[in-house]
Amino acid sequence: MAWIVQSASEGPIVITDMGITLTKNQVRDLDIIGRQNAERSTDIQYLLQKGFIRTIRKDASPSMTPEVDPKIMADLKLASEQITAAAAMSEEQAKAAKALQEQNLRLQAQLEEQKKQLDEGKKQSGEIAGKQDQILAEIKAFAQRDPLGIKAIKEALENIKAEKLVVVERRAEIAKEIKAADEVTERELKTQDNILKLKESKLDRNFEDLGKTVSQKAESVQESINALDEMGI
User: What are the structural domain ranges in the chain?
Assistant: First the structure.
């Protein structure tokens, strides 16, 4: 059983009533703190409603099995009972029975569509969970082989991200300075920008290459970082 959410905020998110902090794009299993505790958390409900966090997997608890809309089920039952009661009626009543029968068919179609959506949701959740499990398994195996090495890689990945942020911010500043610069200064600024552009590209390559060392299953380095965060590395 798991209720996995991911931060959708650019900065850290503090869930005060649970004592949890989520970093950018971090994935967290809320069932670690207990499904009932998570369901009762007003902070979690608010963040979900506002889109600051999103659910990427939520297995049913023993007391929470997927159900179709109760209203559709109730309407379907009522329509069936009315069809039975309309048997052997007059022509006018027969028309009413036919309308009820058509309504019954529409409700059945809605029911089938909702069941299909539930099945598709389960399938997608299973695929996401399966991929996450594979990434976690790879990283756990790496950590068992080289616990110090994986911590060094995590630290290096964070350092590269921080260094790239500095480069990106400086390039943005240069772009503004160029607009107000004279011809000589503009050439100097463009030279600086070209150097920083090359540095940014190199940082991106190093980031991707280093990320692949901990997981081949991850489609992005961020997925590996999220798994490292989930493991507490």
Answer: 3-58, 70-138, 146-230
